[in-house]
Amino acid sequence: MRVAIVTHAVRHNDGQGRVNHEIASAALAEGCTVTLVATHVAPALLAHPRLRWVPIHVGRVWQTNLIRHQVFAIKSALWLRQHRHEFDVVHVNGFISWVHADVNTAHFVHSGWFASPYYPYGLSGGLNAAYQYLYTCLNARLERWAYRRSSVVAAVSEKVAAELREAGVPAQRIEVIHNGVDVQTFAGARGDRRRFGLPDDAFLLLFAGDLRTPRKNLGTVLSALVHLPENVHVVVAGRLHGSRYPDVARTLRLDHRVHFLDFVEDVPSLMHSVDAYVFPSRYEAMSLSLLEAIAAGLPVVTARTAGGAEVIGPDCGIVLPDPDDPRELAKAIAALADDEWRCRLMGAQASRLARQFEWSRMAARYLDLYRRVARQAAHAASGTGEGNRASDTINDRPAGARLIPTDGGEPK
């Protein structure tokens, strides 16, 4: 099978990049030829004889994502339109190229974020807020175009699937495939508080994410900390450059209880150095860090607005209805901090849950999807009367029908 994957980067250290890295690796292991239309590709993949990299150079001159992404979309489309006949499956990620795709993975739904009551930007909020507002509006329209024209859309969570249906994508063309996690690495790590400069006698919460955006919602975590005992501390992992949160912590007189570590490379060890994971994101499609936390055996406190919260049951975490209620967040954290036995039991159950999200299981589902789409396209091309496009057969499925059976009959 000949596969083309279109994405900005294929590498280990970011969400979408890691997903595509795992899919590409699994496809190569099964004997497929893989073409990566991307700006960056991990060196280890480039050494494989059946992998071809088509570099899309955007250039440093473009200073905003709005322009950079359009440059990538145009350049990738020009190349793919010349070479489309070389592939059995073309897999894109959201709106990334001006081409029709066989498989499109929805890692984020801008129309869902825009419609959220927690969306903070507007035209009257200053230059940056206006830019963010226009960026979201444009991406919502472009994604709608891309998702509606794809044969199958893979949603990374049930939350995303619901947003895709709201955006007009037919339910029978949506397949939920949750992201994966490296369970072995996160389960097998060892913690070391001294290495990270953390106190031995505190109950430590970990918050990990982009500290430049209000969407991840560290502000509410800091506000909740005000209502918690002195022995409860927060460890913050994320690049500090451009973040306002160190100043917020100082204003709230929490300097001694909030430990800003900046970028942390050894996240598995850090996760084994803390007691729980807190992540009340105002909008998330599917959080890789949440899956990493349960793989590390951490109980989690999150919110229903965070994609991935759908897999967290009361036996391994606490899911809040409102991400912006600091008192309820504090109450949930206190329930863990005050009961060490419960905290450990929830962590053990989290570890068991994480085994359902191995990267290999996720990649296998994508490969199964590729084969199904390629087979249907081949039937259509041979004139067997099964439709003019792969999507014809897929679209004729009854609403709610699934392309791929899951191991236990339920989405994983």
From TrEMBL:
Gene3D superfamilies associated with the record: Glycogen Phosphorylase B
SUPFAM superfamilies given in the database record: UDP-Glycosyltransferase/glycogen phosphorylase
Keywords in alphabetical order: Glycosyltransferase, Transferase
GO-annotated molecular function: glycosyltransferase activity
Chain ranges of the Glycosyltransferase subfamily 4-like N-terminal domain: 14-184
InterPro entries reported for this sequence: Glyco_trans_4-like_N (IPR028098)
One Pfam family in the UniProt entry: Glyco_transf_4
Spans annotated as Disordered: 380-412
Protein name (record): Glycosyltransferase family 1 protein
Organism of provenance: Trinickia fusca
